[in-house]
């Protein structure tokens, strides 16, 4: 039963991707699948304008991951290790952006920090605000784990200082959660459209915005080729998420 | 002999003086004083929630101390960072680092202390040999049995040559069938390590077999501290007698012809009683599982008891009986016919009258 459901879900996800691939490899999809024959020309046509956009999106996603870790690491530590009404309130507040529509969040950010918009910093900020709840959701339970804290206590009793305990016990102990958080934040930032659409200057689009633009203004075939290229970049990240989750399940006694 | 004197924190070995630990408004440990001499193993024993693990964690520096002092090797370590205390901690489920090999685990404290690589390798090899793990040096903890993980944790703690070794329920995570053998193995390894050791356990057999002295705790306080024989033969109160030996301790009045217990309703002839000295001030009668027998006698030397429960234990049936509000255990042959009540008498020489020294 479970296997049938899994296969149905996989089919539900894969069928649109395969359909997009069929469109992207058709000479003229208006004549039906592979109408006019099979071609890879649309990929050659789509790649040159898309390449700098992908580089930009990768840079934004990497920056978002880095800022996210710098902020959420200490924050998750504080929330996990010092339970109090204040830390619980912080936990709730961090989740608020998830409940606020992207347009409202974007307008608030643009109104408050207009000076940061041209440099792209506002986009990074918006993505950090949007992805922080996911990082905390992964890291707080890992850092609050009693077994990890016992391991840290043993390491300290053996003569290890705080930095050594962090590097040799805490980080390896949270590695699965960290991998999940990093890959999730990367994927969310790379594919984020709402905030990017409103906050980012149109001259320097991110990939989702470029795809939207292509589907709005170009033929279906090159836009589909761009979608397939986008999927090719996201697929390794999604695979890493799946592997990290499998590892977490395996290490659970 | 019970020793509740306040030890000096400057003494060699471990000294815990008047220790108090609080969790919020709850006082988990109150005024506990224990001393562990070098080369000695002290077992802290008591039921769940008595404060024994909190005491151990306070010695390791993992639980803040609200009052009292802890000394180790002549140093006051009450508020010292755990990394600078010189303790070797073996927690209940061993807390072996899962991402490191057996050798990596054992070397952890040596790396933290920046021991040169050649000395580190030699020390790891010594510890692997002591704990018979040489063949498993490259394995990960996930590939080891419970007993092997325990030995890794022990080797890791001993590798740093601690002033005191702290073991929290060392055998509790193991299968009951394995505990007997591993208890003897652990005892031998502790003897050969020559390190002052504090063991926390809720298992009285572990305490009796591993401890040179036993500290028995109840509800955050120390009830009795002495050698296993002292606690076995002269328990401080009925709780100690029951917890450590499953024995019953009754207030008694001694007379020339014997002893009277249960407010004079049971008079036991002198010829049936053994006697022993007590350091606890009052005359008491110590009855163990084998001290009583079911009898046909119906005189003052026997007492009538109501049968509460009968349990088949293989070579005998163990009766739980109630006599005037006191519960006793008594063994009868498996084929004995037992009614709702029985007459109990003392098996000659098996009950001990504890008499205060003159």
UniProtKB/TrEMBL annotation, chain A:
InterPro entries: MetI-like, MetI-like_sf. Keywords: Cell inner membrane, Cell membrane, Membrane, Transmembrane, Transmembrane helix, Transport. Residues 54-243 form the ABC transmembrane type-1 domain. This is ABC transporter permease. It comes from Streptomonospora nanhaiensis. It is a multi-pass membrane protein. The lineage of its organism: Bacteria, Bacillati, Actinomycetota, Actinomycetes, Streptosporangiales. The chain crosses the membrane at residues 58-80, 92-116, 122-144, 165-190, 223-244. It is found in: Cell inner membrane.
UniProtKB/TrEMBL annotation, chain B:
Residues 14-244 form the ABC transporter domain. GO terms for molecular function: ATP binding. Keywords: ATP-binding, Cell membrane, Ion transport, Iron, Iron transport, Membrane, Nucleotide-binding, Transport. It comes from the Bacteria. InterPro entries: AAA+_ATPase, ABC_SmlMolc_Importer, ABC_transporter-like_ATP-bd, ABC_transporter-like_CS, ABC_transpr_FbpC, Mo/tungstate-bd_C_term_dom, P-loop_NTPase, Transp-assoc_OB_typ2. It holds the Pfam family ABC_tran. This is ABC transporter ATP-binding protein. It comes from Nocardiopsis tropica.
